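[step 3/7] inverse_fold.run input=structure_tokens len=224
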């Protein structure tokens, strides 16, 4: 009997046990399910176990919900682009923040990713505008300054009479390396240059900091 082997139980009588090797090779899922799981596993932070949990949700949810989910994904992919000025996510040439007349256009907060903009906006204590670098300097991942959106930033500083720049990159090695690089680059322009203050734990990502921590870090920004 292929896939099965004979073994003895504690009473000494013969019983059948599943051959573990064979069991692992046999998928109990259908072809379309396997295909979906394969695609889900490609998503960041999703392993096979999480993919199976998402699958269970999809199978149980009303068809309408799943259609809406799949349409939402397609819509984002088709319509979202980068803001011409700050690189934040937008569905128009300029993002909501750059379009807003009430924002102080002469204070720029530099962040790594659009998710950082979202986190600082949630804290609600920043009235300036942003510049999204779209990443950080990471020698380990082979990412250098040329992979970041820095040129547009220098152009903004030159052209727009910027009064203050706050570097709000993450408090991890990559974020600190990026902050140092930017400080060297921006200092000669004479613009008031600040770094986020205390409160953000070393080694942590900005987007995971809670709103009050972010507010305090902004308030206690220090000159570099
Ligand atoms: Zn913008």
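[step 3/7] decode complete -> sequence:
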């Amino acid at each position: 009997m292929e896939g099965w082997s004979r073994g003895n139980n504690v009473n000494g009588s013969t019983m059948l046990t599943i051959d573990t090797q064979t069991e692992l090779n046999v998928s109990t899922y259908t072809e379309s399910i396997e295909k979906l799981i394969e695609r889900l596993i490609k998503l960041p932070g999703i392993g096979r176990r999480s993919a199976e949990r998402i699958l269970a949700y999809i199978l149980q949810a009303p068809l309408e919900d799943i259609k809406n989910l799949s349409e939402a994904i397609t819509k984002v992919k088709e319509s979202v682009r980068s803001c011409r000025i700050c690189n934040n996510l937008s569905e128009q040439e300029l993002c909501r923040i750059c379009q807003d007349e009430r924002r102080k256009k002469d204070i720029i907060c530099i962040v790594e990713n659009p998710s950082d903009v979202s986190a600082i906006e949630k804290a609600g204590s920043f009235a300036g505008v942003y510049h999204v670098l779209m990443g950080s300097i990471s020698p380990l991942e082979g990412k250098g300054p040329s992979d970041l959106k820095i040129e547009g930033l220098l152009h903004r500083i030159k052209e727009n009479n910027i009064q203050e720049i706050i570097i709000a990159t993450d408090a991890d090695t990559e974020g600190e390396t990026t902050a140092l690089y930017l400080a060297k680059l921006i200092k000669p322009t004479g613009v008031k240059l600040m770094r986020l203050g205390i409160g953000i734990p070393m080694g942590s990502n900005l987007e995971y900091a809670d709103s009050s921590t972010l507010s305090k870090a902004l308030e206690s920004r220090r000159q570099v």
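[step 4/7] annotate
The pocket of zinc ion is lined by residues 83, 85-86, 88, 94-95, 97-98 (CB under 6 Å).
The CA atoms of residues 93 and 99 lie 10 Å apart.
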